[in-house]
Hints:
The protein is an alpha/beta fold. It contains 24 helices and 27 strands. The longest helix is centred in the last third of the chain and has 16 residues, at 483-498. The N and C termini lie far apart (55 Å). The relative contact order is 0.09. The model is unreliable at 616-649 (pLDDT under 50).
Amino acid sequence: MKQELKLSDWLPTTNKEVKIRGWDALDVILFSGDAYVDHPSFGPAVIGRILESYGLRVAIVPQPNVNDNLQDFVKMGAPKLFFGVTGGCMDPMISNYTASKKKRDKDAYTPNGDTGFRPDYATTVYSNILKEKWPDVPILIGGIEASLRRVTHYDYWSDKLMPTILESSKADMLVYGMGEQPLREVVRLLQKGVPFKNINTVLQTAILLDNEEDIPKNSNWEDVEIVSHEKCLQDKKAYASNFKTIEQESNKLAARRIFQKVGTKTLMINPPYPTMTEDEIDASFDLPYTRLPHPKYNKRGPIPAYEMIKFSINIHRGCFGGCSFCTISAHQGKFIASRSQESVLREVDTVANMPDFKGYLSDIGGPSANMYKMKGKVQAICDKCVAPSCISPVICSNLDTSHKPLTELYRAVDSHPKIKKSFIGSGIRHDMLVPEFNKNADPKELDDYTEEVMTKHISGRLKVAPEHTSDPVLKLMRKPSFSYFHKFKERFDKINIKKGLNLQLIPYFISNHPACEAEDMANLAAETKDMGFQLEQVQGFTPTPMTVATVIYYSGYHPYTLKKVNTPKTQKEKDEQHRFFFWYKNENKDWIRKTLNKLGRQDLLNVLLPENDKWRKNKPSGEAKHTFDDAIPFNQRKNKAKFRSKKKR
């Protein structure tokens, strides 16, 4: 029987809670844009628990008020070592605004989904206030916002190029990516007595140097200089050229140190740490989380993001897909860090014994559900690799894509006496389950995994993400040809019939992506209709820092080829691309006819709007709701079913 929790089981958030622990001072105080949920899926909690495990006295100030007398920034005094600042689990601009730049009416990381508790550009806002109040205390920033804005980047919401967030925030150090490894070294040096300002060669950190300062020496590193921030402001092509270096060095096992001039200063980004070992990632997940929101929120309502993952299990980090529109590999890396089966099962047991657990795990997954335990067969080949993706344009022959460890893990989880069913809520890379694409894999093993998922781990719907039907767009996205989705659907249908199931396949698609023309969207609509899909809810491309697609959106150039790429940018272009998704709505039909006739694509018109269109006749009663969901960033869509499959009549 689990012991009843005490207030002191959470990291302290007030002076009263600090005193309950018997502390008279703090070593680190964290400021976060999210409400405090003490759970391994919430970055601020992970960092707090990691620092605590190093023997530090840590407190957290969640969602400090920036609209009053700023007492939240002074109430706990000054820490002995440093302030830690993060905007939260998502970039605050994505938390606060839709792709249409409209204010959101819900914040998933705030009790009751309330808005107004997180400022725009939260990391910069918090850090500037702390610098003003405590000018002599070092500030270390990290998390998604800091990580993806560590170098000159395009900010979609202000529609301008911004310098490294170290410049705007005035912070002393930036930790990018997953923070456990660099923080361990920073703390080790501080505890050894090294002044914070002298800590400048820790892997996976970035700092701004004054031009008169000496460049820290490290004989093990090679250096590379990218185009200055000022040159980027003047020349979009030069800005685009930077990204190839940034992305490649972020994903190399032996990366170079990156320098960039920013005004009278120099940005120095140290190489990343090697991928976390199994023991290291297990240790992070095995920390003493309560797995619950702080009791201070008990009367404020549920926290939506927590409710979504409350009974889910994260089994790995990283993604080797390298999709052009996705930020996962930029933050978590392309190499997979997998937990041991024993660690996963320990967490399953913890969840199974929670008082309100009913026997159903909502997800056993990660950034992509089916990359667990996958890595290079010959490490020496990976050591030299600079490719941003291991599966585009083809699956690397050195990549071990065996699904057997994952299938065995699912079965081990399901053998727990309190587990009635474990679901796969994360997106599955369907292309890796197609033998024609995954040529080095055992076809039987792939079918075994697909069958395991279909028969035991979904409830009516399997979500996959072909993203588009146009090969040129898919190539730019770093996604495989749509022909592989057809082949996957054949296997899906075959298992459906064989097992007497009645499952639906739910594909995700993106509109307005760089290189996508109106004709491409018309073809997408026609091909998916021909396959029996009627799209009801769609995803619009949202430019976020640190992706190839965003660089193209702003600059007009592909960073790897420096060739021009067109991107739909006006609201008119975006709206028109969306209309093709909803070919079955009466208000779109005349426009579609005129547009396709103008394009000379009567072939597509005959598919979408034939003379005797049975789709309207056979539609269930009630009009399909036209909802363009631009609310969910691409790497956080796993529990949103967006389309309804319908059998061809």
